[in-house]
Design goal:
By secondary structure, this protein is an alpha+beta fold. The chain contains 4 helices and 7 strands; from the N terminus they run E-H-E-H-E-E-E-E-E-H-H.
Length: 183
């Protein structure tokens, strides 16, 4: 299996935001943007792995600025990190007003994608050739994201019972909750 450069699989999707994509406040619905993010993450990871890929997790989705109807949204994806069968795809999203040329950054997020073979089993992916300091920084960030994502899953899998104790109740003071059961 031959290692690949980051640039080999870099992918950009640009789409016009049309009125049917708008939510009740007239801004582009977040679900539309999430769907586009998933598509660009798939395209990027499929290029790198030369296989079908599935989305395993999404990290850091935060809508920084609203996207307006009539703007052009560009989603730029690159492989930031590779594991044995998984890849972390970094996605940078900008929105441009075509009339004024004004561009704004609306989101950066990370999709963990896993390569699958023809039988649906996980498949080993090529390594990543790092050619710049920026790519190295993204690789290290990707490794940290993978570790944090795993820790979060383990924490959630332990269940909430682990956290309900006297200290937990003390920590809830001042929060907007009312505990209405006996421990």
């Amino acid at each position: 299996m031959k290692n690949k450069t980051v640039s080999f699989s870099e992918t950009t999707i640009t789409e016009l935001m049309i009125p049917s994509y708008a939510n009740f406040s007239g801004k582009i619905h977040g679900g539309i943007l999430l769907s586009l993010m998933d598509k660009v993450a798939f395209a990027c990871s499929a290029k790198h792995s030369e296989s079908y890929c599935v989305t395993v997790s999404v990290e850091g989705v935060e809508f920084i600025q609203p996207v307006e109807v009539g703007e052009l949204v560009s989603l730029m994806a690159s492989i930031n990190y590779v594991g044995r069968t998984s890849m972390i795809v970094g996605i940078h999203i900008d929105s441009m007003n075509p009339k004024t040329g004004e561009t704004k950054h609306t989101n950066t997020c990370y999709f963990t994608m896993v390569a699958k073979d023809d039988l649906g089993k996980t498949k080993e992916v090529p390594g990543l050739i790092i050619e710049s300091h920026d790519q190295l920084k993204k690789f290290v960030e990707g490794k940290a994201i993978k570790k944090m994502s795993k820790s979060k899953r383990e924490l959630l899998n332990k269940g909430i019972e682990h956290y309900i104790d006297k200290n937990f109740l003390e920590n809830c003071k001042g929060e907007k909750c009312l505990i209405k059961f006996e421990l």
